[in-house]
Amino acid sequence: MADDECKKQECPPGAPIWMCTFADLMSLLLCFFVLLLSFSVMDVTKYKQVAGAMKDAFGVQSEPPVTEEMKGRQMVSTTFESVPLHVQVLVARHFSEELDSGKLEAEYSGEGLILRVKGDVAFESGKAQIRNDFLPLLDKLGKIIPDMDLAVEVGGHTDNVPIRKGVSTFSTNWGLSSARSIAVVEYWIEKFRIPGQKLSAKAYADSRPIATNGTPEGRSKNRRVEFKIKPENPEIVVTGIEIDETPINEISPPSHK
Question: Where located (predicted)?
Answer without folding.
Answer: Cell membrane
